[in-house]
Amino acid sequence: MTYPATSPGLTAADVERLFLQMERPLFNVVYRWLWDRDESAELVQETFTRLWQARARVRPDTAGAFVYRIAVNLAASRRRWRALRRFVALDDAAPAGADDQPDLAVLGAERAAAVRAAVDALPEKLRRVLVLCELSELSYADIAAALEIPVGTVGSRRHAAADRVRRHLHAQEYRREAAARR
User: Fold this and answer.
1) Residue 8 confidence class, pLDDT cut points 50, 70, 90
2) CA distance 96 to 86
3) Looking at residue 83, what is its pLDDT?
4) What percent helix, strand, coil does the chain show, rounded to 5?
5) Rounded CA gap, 131 and 109, in Å?
6) Residues near 104 by beta carbon (within 8 Å), at least 6 away in sequence
7) Which residues are CB-neighbours of 116 under 8 A, at least 6 positions away?
8) Which helix (H) or strand (E) holds 62?
9) pLDDT band at 27 (very low <50, low <70, confident <90, very high)
10) What is the mean pLDDT of the chain?
C-alpha cells in the first residue's frame, strides 16, 4: 500500500480528540510501568506534547498506535533511568504506598504486590505486550503497529507473558503455603 507524498497530518482537533479519548487508558498503561501517579501523568503529558510536535507527519489512521508507542518508549526509558539512578545510589527509591495503587486495593495488598512483582519481573518485550493488551483497549493489529512487531508476535508474547506471570504467582503461593506449614 502506498500513501500520498503529502500526508495531511493531524489537525489540532484530531490531537484534542485523541487526548480526550486516550488520556485515561494511556495513563493506565504508563502507570503499570512506573507505579507512580505523578510520573505517569507527566509522561502522558509528554506523550501528547511529542504527538503535537510530530502532528504534521502522523496520519490520522495510525495516530493511536503512534501515541502508545511514544508512551511505552517514554515509560521504558524512565524505568531504565530509575534503575540506573538506584544503581549509582542517588535515590533511596521508597516502596510504593497503598495510596499509589487504589485500583489494586480490591485484590488485597499482598496479592497486588505479587502481581506487580510478577509483571515487573517480565522481560521488557513481554511486559510491553502484556500491559498494552490488558490496558490499552487496542487491537492486536494496533499493538503490533505501536511496537513495530508482527501481529502474530503480539499473541505469542501475550501468551508467554501471561504464562510467566501465572507461574510466578503459583510459585509464590507454594512458598507461602510451605512457610505456613512450618
Assistant:
1) confident
2) 15
3) 64
4) 80, 0, 20
5) 20
6) 112, 115, 116
7) 35, 101, 104
8) none
9) very high
10) 82
34 and 40 Cβ atoms separated by less than 8 Å = yes
Which of 121, 101, 91 has its CA nearest to residue 40? 101
Written as nine digits, the cell of 17 is 480528540
Q: How far apart are CA 136 and CA 68, in angstroms?
A: 8
pLDDT in tens, 115-143: 888 888 999 999 999 888 887 878 899 99
- Residue recorded with cell 503499570: 32
- Residue where the block lists cell 495510525: 62
pTM: 0.60
What nine digits make up the cell of 61? 489512521
66: which 3 cell numbers?
A: 503512534
pLDDT in the model for residue 108: 64
Cβ neighbour number for residue 136 with a 10 Å cutoff = 22
CB 71 within 8 A of CB 128: no
The residues, ordered by sequence, that sit 6+ positions from 40 with a Cβ below 8 Å of its Cβ are 27, 30, 31, 33, 34, 75
Taking alpha carbons only, the member of 132, 115, 103 closest to residue 37 is 103
CA dihedral sign of residues 80, 83, 88, 89: positive
